[in-house]
Amino acid sequence: MQWREMASAVLLSGASLGAAVGLLATSAWLISMASTRPPVLVLEVAIVSVRFFGLSRGVLKYASRILEHNSALKIQSSLRVRIYERFSRLLPGDYSALHRGNLLSEIINDVELAQDLWLRVASPWLASLISGGAGITIIHWLLPACGNAIAAIFLLATFLIPFLAMISGGESEARNYESQLFDQILQVAESAPESLIYNYDRELLNQIDQLQDKITEVEARNAARSGFASAFYFVALGASVIVALRFGAEGALNHHLAGINIAVVALVPLAIFDGLSSLPGAFSQLRLILGAIRNIGPMLEIIDLTTIEESSIPLSVRLEFRAVLPLLPDATTRVISATVSSHETLLISGRSGSGKSSIINALLGFIPYSGEILLNGQKLHPGDAHLFSTLLQDDYLFGTSIRENLKIGNPSAEDQELLEVLEIVELRDFVLNLPAGLDTMIGSLGFNFSGGEKQRLKLARVLLRNTPIFILDEPYEFLDSGQVERISIRVSERLARSALIIVSHLPLPISALSISL
Amino acid sequence: MKPFDPRLLRYSRSSRGFIFAIVLIAVIGATFTIAQAFLLVDLICKFFQDNRAFSSLHAEVVVLGLIFLARALLAFTNDRVSTTASSKMRNELRTEVMKKTLENSGSDTTELGTVGIALLVTKGINSLDSYFAKFLPQLFIAVVVPVVVGITIAWRDWKSGGIILLTIPLIPVFGILIGKFTASATEKKWQTLALLSGYFLDLLSGLTTLKVYGREKLQSKKLDEVGNKYRTETMQVLRVSFLSSLALELVATLSVALLAVTIGLRLVNGSMPLSVGLFVLVLAPEVYWPIRQVSAYFHAAADGVAAFNQLFSILEKPLRNANYVATQVSEISWSELKVCYPNREEIIIPAGKWRPGEIHALIGPSGSGKSTLAGILLGFIYPTEGTVTISDQSGSTDLSTMDLVAWRSLIAWQPQEPKFPIGTVAHILRHAQPQASDSDLTTALLRVDLDPQDLPQGLQTELGTVRQKLSIGQLRKIALARALMKSAPILILDEPTASVDDISENQIANVLRERAKEGAMVLLISHREFMIGSSTHVTSMGVSK
Question: CA-nearest residue of chain A to B36?
Answer without folding.
Answer: A238
